[in-house]
Amino acid sequence: MFRTLTSIVVGIACASALVSEPGTQQRASDPSGHWVLAAATTTSGRSESRGAPQPPREAPTTVTTVSGAAFNCGRECTIVQANQALTVETALLGSDVTKVPPVTFRLDDQKRFVDDSFNPGRELTVTAKRNGDTIEIVTVPRFSQKVSVESGQLVVVTSVMAVAGDKVTFRYTRKVAIPRFIPD
User: Fold this and answer.
1) Where are the domains of the chain?
2) Closest by alpha carbon to 60, among 41, 79, 43, 88?
3) Max avg pLDDT among 29-33, 151-155, 176-180
C-alpha cells in the first residue's frame, strides 16, 4: 500500500514538474487561441439626468464588431501571437458566414497600415504595442483598443477617442477542441 501511494505521489510530482517547465505553458497574457464571443457591452460616458452628469453605465448589446476599428474578432476568431506579431485569423464578422482575410499587427509601436476587415482594399493606419499584459492598438484617428486575457477570457475594449467614456467591451471564451471518439 505504501509503495503504491509513494508511486502515485512521485508520478504526480513528475507530471507537475513537466507542466510547469518554462516554455511548456502558454503565457497567461498570450491571446493565442480560438475564441468565441460570450458577451458584449457598451458604456456611454455622456449620460445625463435632469441636466446633471451621470456616471457611465454598462449595458448589454448585440453588436459584435466595431466598423473602422482595426482589431475585430467578431462572433469568433483565431488569434496567433508569434514574436512581435499578432494575427487575427478566420474572424466571423456580423451575421456574415464568410471568414475575413487575416489582419496582422506588428507590436512595435510604429505607424503601419493594415487591411480593413469591413472594406477589402481599404487600409487603416494603426500603431500596436504590448504594454505589460495588455496589447494596445490605436486606429488613427478614431479608436483605441486594449486586448488582454483576464480570468481565462479574451477581453477587447474599444474606446472612441473623441468621446471620453464611450466604449464597447467584448468578452470571449476559449473554444476547446473536443477529441472525437471514433469506434473501431
Assistant:
1) 27-174
2) 41
3) 151-155
pLDDT in tens, 30-56: 999 999 999 999 998 665 566 666 677
Classify residue 60 as exposed, middle or buried by CB count within 10 Å of its CB (0-12, 13-18, 19+): exposed
Grid coordinates belonging to 151? 480570468
Which of 153, 129, 140, 18 lies closest to 81, judged by CA? 129
Global confidence as pTM? 0.78
Distance, in Å, from the CA atom of 164 to the CA atom of 95, rounded to the nearest integer, reads 29
CATH number for the region 27-174 comes to: 2.40.128.20
CB-CB contact of 168 with 61 (8 Å): yes
Q: Is the dihedral of CA 136, 131, 34, 75 positive or negative?
A: negative
| DSSP one-letter string for 119-167 | STT-EEEEEEEEETTEEEEEETTTEEEEEEEETTEEEEEEEETTSTT-E
